[in-house]
Amino acid sequence: MARTGNASIPANPAKAVKTLNVLVTTPESSFDPALASDITTLSVNENLFEPMLRYDYLARPLKLKPNTLRAMPEISADGKTYTLRLQAGIFFSEDAAFGGKRRELQAADYAYAIQRMYDPALKSPWLFMFEGKLQGDEALRGDAYAKTVKSGKQSVIAGIQVVDRYTLRLRLQAPDPNFLFILATPATGAVAREVMEFYGNQAGNHPVGTGPFRLGEWKRSFQLNLIANPDYRRPLFDGEATQDAYSRRIAESLRGKSLPLVQRIRISVVEEQQARVLGFLNREFDCLEQVPAPLSEMVMRDGQLKPELSKQGIQLRLFSPLQTYYVWMNMEDPVLGGYTPDKIALRRAIALSYNHQQDIAMMEKGLAQAAQSPLAPNVIGYDPEFRSPVQFNPVLANALLDKFGYQRGPDQYRRLPDGQPLELTMHTQASTTGRLRDEVWRKNMEMLGIRISFKSDKHSEILRAARLGKVQMTEANWVADFPDGENFFQLLYGPNTGRANYARFNLPEYNRLFEQSRRMADGPERRTLYRQMSLYIHAYNPWILRTHPLSADVQQPWLMNFQRHPVDFTNWRYLDIAPDAKQNMK
After folding, report:
1. What spatial distance separates the first Cα and last Cα of the chain, rounded to whole Å?
2. 238 CB burial (10 A radius; 0-12, 13-18, 19+)
3. pLDDT tens, position by position, 309-322
4. Distance between CA atoms of residues 275 and 278, nearest Å
5. Could you tell me which residue ranges the Solute-binding protein family domain spans (predicted)?
């Protein structure tokens, strides 16, 4: 069991603690904003740490608004200078690192948060958001980082300037259409240098931010408790509602209320799919986002909520997350990686063995659509007309393997062109879902005559091994951190190898197109580049694109203000529990 700080809720027998009960599907990792890239940890972090901007909860289309800033950033006429003015009187939650003193948020804390992403020891998956964009950032890259940091200056490069206690100025080498989105990501949340230095390499186990909650009791990989932060400024809700009647009702319910609305969030780690659904039906959880598709019949019938559940007041909502499921293959692996025709043929054959239609019908129960490119529908830059040239075709897959020397032995299993045995290893999650997926890929490989074994592990351990290049292939998914195509295509950008680019794909032409596209706003010219980049992905097959899910979300009758957001991972600060509603349910 781990605890952080002195987080607790004062005893008050006259008033029950209002608690939100939710679940996550994978264990947490490090609560260091510069490192966290899994959905579970990001979900927690966005409630502990605060970026300068955040999304309006209800506004559609998406709208950014000031979070810790007094107003939206001041942007120069040439689009390269951002002046950011913080509110005074925002404080970090109490922690031993501050020596018993209240610690006010300062512009230097955001400068430090951005600077840390350049630390080569961290291998931050978020460095792509700033690397090569900030003026003078070559002084922060690689071996130069340690020397620059030792200077002890708050303003270490021209691109990151602390003007005064509450003013930060960021200068870009060229205009960046996505830069405001970047300033709203959890990775850019303010961190205090004192905390990072006080806890050292254990700082990810002691998160200290300025957000609406702080970490309370924590049982690793089992349960986390977030406690309303007593040092939080508790802003009044002032969001906009769309024309949707449901959103307008939520806006009316929230109008003028200070956030957050609950005192505690109990977060359970539930990896097994059946346990998630049964837990919800047993009223252990207030909502269940993304009902596991293979078990959707437990709550749905003919695409609708079961009548018996509807009578209980349970509600069903369908939501399209900005999410892509895929398999990545390690391009540096001696068996599966490489850019020679024989290696490309092997990966192409594996991709041709994947059957979208069967996967969606059998495993996803229709709650998904086939992914043609990395971009999910509604992501800026998505092309609904684009179609992957790599479709299910086991005959062609086998012909490719025959042509490039992967001959079958007497046992009918294939060998490498040099005659050595061919066997693949796929990392999978140690869960029922993982085992089901194993059988899908076992059958796919049997069609090709390829032996495959499966190494089951925790999600966090797979990520750790992947960053070191020690995973040959695995299934993964990506949810947009900001709603633009850049956020997806960066996953295969060569310089991101060892960070977000787990496939370790490094194709010069792809890199050039990505660098060109990231300087463009959405439009026909950039979409042409995106199409070309997608074709390179299908040509070299570092990924096998699977699906974009349709999320079936269910909520209990006592849960108020629930609405999924396309980019924010959680809506916990806006949720409320209707008085006595749960107790009155029969």
Report:
1. 35
2. exposed
3. 999 999 999 999 99
4. 5
5. 64-497
CA distances, 491 to each of 126, 443, 504 (Å): 11, 28, 9
Whether the CB-CB separation of 198 and 501 falls below 8 Å is answered with no
Helix (H) or strand (E) holding 218: strand 213-219
Query: Quick one: tokens of 176?
Result: 């960046």
Do 403 and 349 touch, CB atoms closer than 8 A? no
The letter for the amino acid at 83 is T
Q: What are 52's strand-pairing partners?
A: none
Q: Mention every residue, 6+ apart, whose C-beta is less than 8 A from residue 12.
A: none
Phi, psi of 190 (to 5 degrees): -65, 135
Distance CA 486, CA 515 (A): 10
Q: Give burial (CB, 10 Å; 0-12/13-18/19+) of 320.
A: middle
pTM of the model: 0.87
Q: What is d(CA 186, CA 543) in angstroms, rounded to the nearest whole number?
A: 26
> Which letter, b or e, does each residue of 83-114 get, where b requires 16 or more Cβ atoms within 10 Å of its Cβ?
ebbbeeebbbbbbebbeeeebebbbbbbbbbb
Indicate the pairing of strand 423-429 with strand 451-457.
parallel
CB distance 555 to 562 below 8 Å: yes
Distances (CA, A) of 410 to 414, 419, 420, 449: 9, 13, 14, 11
Percent of the chain predicted with pLDDT > 70: 95
Strand bridging mode 264-269 / 19-24: parallel
Q: Omega of the bond prior to 384 within 30 degrees of 0, cis? A: no
Q: Which residue has the tokens 């929230």?
A: 254
In tens, the pLDDT along 556-586 reads 999 999 999 999 999 999 999 998 655 444 3
DSSP annotation string for 315-335: EEEEE--SEEEEEEE-TT-TT
Interhelix angle 341-352/432-448, rounded to 10 degrees, is 120
Dist. CA 554–CA 289, nearest whole Å = 7
